[in-house]
Amino acid sequence: MPDSLLTQLFSLEGQVAVVTGGTGVLGGAMVRGLAGAGARVGVLGRRRERAEEVVAAVAEGGGEGLALPADVLDKAQLAGALESVLARWGRIDILVNAAGGNVPAATLTDDTTVFDLPQDAFRQVFDLNLLGTLLPTQVFGAAMARRESAGGAAPRGSVVNISSMAAQRTLTRVIGYSAAKAAVDNFTRWMATELARRYGGGLRVNAIAPGFFVGDQNRALLLNPDGGLTARGQTIVDHTPAGRFGEPDELVSTLLWLCSPGASFVNGVVVPVDGGFSAFSGV
Ligand SMILES: NC(=O)c1ccc[n+]([C@@H]2O[C@H](COP(=O)([O-])OP(=O)(O)OC[C@H]3O[C@@H](n4cnc5c(N)ncnc54)[C@H](OP(=O)(O)O)[C@@H]3O)[C@@H](O)[C@H]2O)c1
C-alpha cells in the first residue's frame, strides 16, 4: 500500500485530542500514540505533576501536549480544561475517555458477600466510570458539535470510550465495576446514534474493550510482589488464548483507527483488544 494512501486513511496530523486518564498507564500509552500519529494532545487527570511529566515525554518525542489538571466528575473543571484547549489550539477533534477503574470497596472479598456490598462504594465506581465518561463527552462533545457554526462545514469528531471485559461476561468479585462498564457500552451505542442523527455522521462514538493489562490499580490483583502471577492472574492468562497480559502500546493501533478518517463509517462499536479472551469459552 503506498504511503500516501496510509496517510490519507490514518493520519491525525493537525488534529487535537484530549485523553482523560492520560496520567494513567493505558491512557498514557494512548497519549503517546496519538501524538506519534500527528495529533496535539491534552493530558487530563487530577495529578497535575504527572500530567506535566506525560506532556514532557510527548515533547521529547517531538510532539505537542498540554497538561489539563481536572476531575472528570467536576463539570466546571472540565469546562476550564476545554477553555485551555481552545485557547491553545482553537479546536477539539478527539476525546478518549480513559479515566476510570475499579473501587476496592465495591469488590467482593472472601469475607464479604454481595449482600454486604456498600451502597456508597457501588455508587462511587458507577460515578467514576459512567458519569466520568458522560461529563467529558458533554463538555468536549458539545465543542465538536459547535464547530458547525464556526466553519459552515458539518461537525467532525471522534469519541472513544474505554470499556472492559467485565462489561459483557461475568468477572467474579468486581460487581460495581462490571455494571458501570456495561453501562459505558450502552452509552457508547446510545451517543453514537444520538450524535450522528442530530449532528451528522461526522461525529462518531466508539469504544475499546481492553483485555487484561497491568495497570497501577490492578497490579496487586494480577502480580505477586516477586513478579509471579497471583491465582487470579493465572486464571486470566489461562483464559487468554495469547497466553499473556497485553502491553499498553497494543491498544494504540485500534485507537488510531477509530479516530482516523479511515473509520468514517465506523460508529457505535465496542472493539475488544484482548488477546482472544472474549472469544474463548475456557474449554
Ligand atoms: N488495566 C486493565 O487491564 C484495564 C482493562 C480494561 C479496562 N481498563 C480501563 O482502562 C482505563 C485506564 O486504566 P489503567 O489500567 O490505565 O489504570 P490507571 O493507570 O490507574 O489509570 C486510571 C486513570 O484514571 C484517572 N482518574 C481516576 N479518577 C479520576 C477522576 N475523578 N478525574 C480524572 N481522572 C481520573 C487517573 O488519573 P489521576 O489519578 O491523575 O486523576 C488515571 O490517569 C480505565 O477506564 C480502566 O477501567 C483497564
CATH class of the largest domain, named Alpha Beta
Number of helical elements = 9
The CATH topology of the largest domain is given as Rossmann fold
Number of strands: 7
Proper CATH architecture of the largest domain: 3-Layer(aba) Sandwich
Strand order of the largest sheet: 3-2-1-4-5-6-7
Q: What is the SS-derived class?
A: alpha/beta
How much of the residues is beta strand, in percent? 5-15%
In whole angstroms, the N-to-C terminal distance is: 39 Å
The major pleated sheet works out as: 7 strands, parallel
Order of H and E elements: HEHEHEHEHEHEHHHE
Query: Considering DSSP H and I runs of 4 or more, what fraction of the residues is helical?
Result: 40-55%
CATH H level of the largest domain: which superfamily? NAD(P)-binding Rossmann-like Domain
The radius of gyration computed from the alpha-carbon positions, rounded to a whole number of angstroms, is 19 Å
**Overall spatial form:** globular
Q: Which residue ranges are poorly predicted, with pLDDT under 50 across at least 5 consecutive positions?
A: none
Bound molecules: NADP nicotinamide-adenine-dinucleotide phosphate
Average per-residue pLDDT, rounded, comes to: 96
| Count of spatially separate domains | 2
